[in-house]
Amino acid sequence: MNKITGNATNVRTLFNNRYTVQYYQREYGWEKKQIEELIEDLTNEFFEFYQEGHMQRDVEQYGDYFLGPIILTNDNAIIDGQQRLSSTTLFLIYLNNLQHQVGTQKVNIDNLIYSEKYGEKTFCINVEEREKCLEGLYDNGYYDLTNETSESVINLYNRYQDIEVLFPDDYLKGGALPVFIEWLIEKVVFIEIKTDSEQDAHKIFVSMNDRGLRLTPTEMLKGYLLSEINHNSVRNEANDLWKDKILKLKDIEKDGDADFIKNWLRSQYAETIREGKRDAENKDFEIIGTTFHKWVRENKSVIGLSNSQDFEYIIMDEFQTFSDIYIRLKKYSREFHNDYDCVFYNADRGFTLQYQLILASISPSDSTQIIDKKIKMVSCFIDQYIAQRVFNFKTVDYSSIRYTIFNLTKAIRRKTAEELAQILIDYIGNMEQTLDGIDYFYLNQFTRRYMLHILSRMTYYVEQQSGINIRFSDYVNRQQKNPYDIEHIWADDYTQGKHQLEFSTEDEFREYRNSFSGLLILSKDKNRSFQAMSYDKKVVKYDSENLLARTLNQNCYTNNPLFLRFMQESNLDFMPYDEFNKDQLLERQQLYKEICKRIWDVDRIEQIVNM
């Protein structure tokens, strides 16, 4: 093996260079979970040092944070570490955009994101297929995936959206932002390992990743719990049960075992959560999220573990009960089930906290019937909670609602079905946000991530009520060959129709064009082929599309008895339109609002508990 060098290199130095990725490892595959862990690790470490009033110069006294090794050849080809480097690039782009939005003192990090020559940008990770996406994200935080086929590019865009959702809303979006950025680029460190040849780089990669296996927190927790069971036969039985459930959890997703244990312990036992102060210590909620095996050992009295029977019970009863429920919930979140539809709806909108909240409501002694009822009630509540916030432009980002969900977790913990229903009904009834926010709802950068889901729910509801057999999952599945997209009823053309008479400026026209009632869903190929058409041509095409689109066409109201019966029984004011101008758009906004009130009916929780 030729010469090898290894140096601790901070983000500022590392990202001042440009790197290539070998063709055989160009896929960027991080998921939301890895981005969430990265942001939590970085922000938690930053607050170990930051104090109110600190400025960028104070970062010099802060400690370093190690983000792992990367392996490069001398010509800057990445052999190991492109996932972390690509994710850090996304993070730098997001922070750069955030600086423009919040108007704080700007830290210049442009040169860490790209270099420019002859008017063209070259990004830190120089892969040609990613350039347009990264440029769009850098310019305005958006990239149109309509014609995109690259898995890596789709993942990059989705992970950027995750960063937008997960980055804390509190101090870091204010005066602490430039200090955080300064710390990130100066004190976050990689170990840069360089070799003369690609062959040597691969040898190092194999050597670093093939030197024994560390015990995971799950394995350490199992070892502790089993060690406290006195009888060999019982211990062996508990061990077999544990292994069986862990295998099933891992079949769901790579870290399914750890994710389940975190949700289980938080839902049933966590009593404290880190305060919003900069120098606050981690509490039950955060410690369970990182070292749950240690937390159980240190809090065994809280859990009720004092003798061999207690340790036997927690595996043979609690662990078994809650792992089985969690496996069910994960199945419902991926495969649409009519009886547990809200679990799927919540998962489709990326609401990962639903598992904790649902598990909190359940007692190990609950019957199967009661467990089923609680799953339906809590998931229905979450569906309504998300809807009422989103329709009022209130975020449901993890960092914004974690305290709310944690307090709700404790409030509903092991309650009876009747007590649970009352708590959830009261909470929805006392929310500041209501469905009246629909009057002003429209498509923008914030609502874009939810709009396809909302329009799909409306389309599915109208079709389901009219006896049309369609799968909701088909409308929101982004992985299928020809997925559905958001369709604007008005073409993006100010000169069409009466727009210039009704709107004094093109900007005003575009605002109304993005109104809730001016949107539908169509398959991607239809969306592309219809987009430039005038309304009089589009409405003819809509007649062969989904039922919500068809309701704009007069033909929908003839020879369609099931729909007509639904319209009469529901008292919803569906109307066809030969022309669709400002007045018609505002009229249809009220129809959309009424449909949404039926979908997110506040009485549904009470109906479930009384079933």
From TrEMBL:
Tell me the organism's taxonomic lineage. Bacteria, Bacillati, Bacillota, Bacilli, Bacillales
Q: Which residues form the GmrSD restriction endonucleases N-terminal domain?
A: 13-225
Q: Which residues form a coiled coil?
A: none
Task: Please state every residue range assigned to the domain named GmrSD restriction endonucleases C-terminal.
Answer: 451-592
Q: Give the originating organism.
A: Aquibacillus rhizosphaerae
A Pfam family the protein falls into: GmrSD_C
Name by which UniProt lists this protein: DUF262 domain-containing protein
